[in-house]
Structure prediction request, 227 residues.
Amino acid sequence: MEHIVDAVLQFEGDQHYMYRILRSIKNRFGSTSELGIYEMRQSGLRQVNNPSELLLTENHQGLSGVAIAAAIEGVRPFLIETQSLVSTAVYGTPQRSATGFDIRRMNMLLAVLEKRAGFKLAQKDVFLNIAGGLRVNDPAIDLSVISAVLSSSLDISIDRGVCLAGEVGLSGEIRPVTRIEQRIQEADKLGFSRIIIPEMKGLDSFKSKIEVVKVRKVEEAFRELFG
Prediction:
């Protein structure tokens, strides 16, 4: 078969934010798992070598509804800020809104919070935002999403030295995620003191300065975060 095109590139990003993602959908000459992150400036596009430092807000200490996720996009690990606002529904039907995250997955995670963790959110508005205008599809940010939602609902802030990585299952279990060593190294490099991850085998020999906390269920993660 003849190749009609050699490469298909997709340029993603919100027009109201400065960051853009260059994603490869088809690449005849190499991998499609590579990812480029760029910053829009008056002089043009500038490559972002360390996106984690630019995507994190330094002054969120003491603010509820903010959780840091260790994500992987393509082959690149970086830390992103998940923000949530939970408030009592003013109108009859509670509102659900997500920016940079799949709204259907958010509804599923809210159902897990209600059924498995016992937090009543049916009569509350829930708004979710991935800071920086990025859209992230990594399932490992599930734990960060539900932690940000619960933080806003309880109005209790999460310690700024903690980041999270884990997929949440329908029964409330925290499922293993890929490339966990890279996520831990990225959090360690940026000065985080603790990372909460799923219970996984093969990490006993992995050495890092950051404290690694392993959890199996969402209740265990919430006890680590909120006591």
